[in-house]
């Protein structure tokens, strides 16, 4: 049986430069992308005539995108992510999937942190958390 499942290999995440028109540069050495992991809030609409709890969906919180990179302090994009985490500047990001034509998700986010990890028989990695603010636009 054949599968139409999307392969992850070749997927990218890029950071915008803030210019108009905006240019996105791929973040190098990414080994994992997870998210956005958000969900909509719940609004309780239960009243005295209800026979069970009733809800409506509220605003969507698009949550976080987490990426793991093989961290290199001298890499331009890795250094920029650290700078963004210190400045707190809102930045645009774009995830590009491997389908054809390629689906993209573009969103604004704050870089919450760039903690690094080191281990025996390992490489230096960073687990970067991007806090999505606003909508995720699919194209």
What does this entry look like structurally?
- With 139 residues, the chain is mainly beta.
- It has one domain: Factor Xa Inhibitor, CATH 4.10.410.40.
- It contains 1 helix and 10 strands.
- The chain has one helix at residues 76-87; strands at residues 12-16, 24-26, 30-34, 39-44, 55-61, 64-70, 91-96, 104-113, 116-117, 125-138.
- Strands 1, 2, 3, 6, 7, 8, 9 and 10 form an 8-stranded antiparallel β-sheet that branches.
- The chain is globular, with a radius of gyration of 19 Å.
Question: What characteristics describe this protein?
Answer:
mainly beta; Factor Xa Inhibitor; globular; 10 strands; single chain; 139 residues
Topology:
Elements: E1 12-16, E2 24-26, E3 30-34, E4 39-44, E5 55-61, E6 64-70, H1 76-87, E7 91-96, E8 104-113, E9 116-117, E10 125-138
Antiparallel strand pairs: 1-2, 1-7, 3-6, 4-5, 6-10, 7-8, 8-10, 9-10
Number of strands: 10
Would you give the CATH topology? Factor Xa Inhibitor
The CATH class label is Few Secondary Structures
What fraction strand?
Answer: over 45%
Shape summary: globular
SSE topology string: EEEEEEHEEEE
Question: What class, by secondary structure content?
Answer: mainly beta
Count the DSSP helices. 1
CATH architecture: Irregular
Computed CA radius of gyration, to the nearest angstrom = 19 Å
């Amino acid at each position: 049986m054949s599968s139409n499942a999307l392969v992850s290999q070749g997927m990218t995440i890029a950071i915008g430069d803030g210019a108009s028109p905006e240019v996105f540069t791929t973040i190098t050495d990414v080994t994992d992308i997870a998210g956005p992991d958000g969900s909509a809030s719940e609004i309780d609409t239960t009243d005295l005539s209800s026979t069970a709890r009733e809800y409506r969906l509220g605003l969507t919180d698009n949550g976080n995108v987490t990426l793991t990179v093989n961290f290199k302090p001298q890499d331009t994009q890795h250094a920029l992510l650290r700078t963004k985490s210190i400045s707190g500047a809102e930045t645009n990001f774009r995830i590009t999937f491997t389908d054809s034509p390629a689906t993209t998700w573009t969103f604004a986010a704050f870089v919450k942190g760039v903690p690094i990890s080191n281990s025996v028989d390992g490489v230096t990695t960073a687990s970067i958390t991007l806090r999505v603010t606003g909508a995720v636009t699919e194209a």
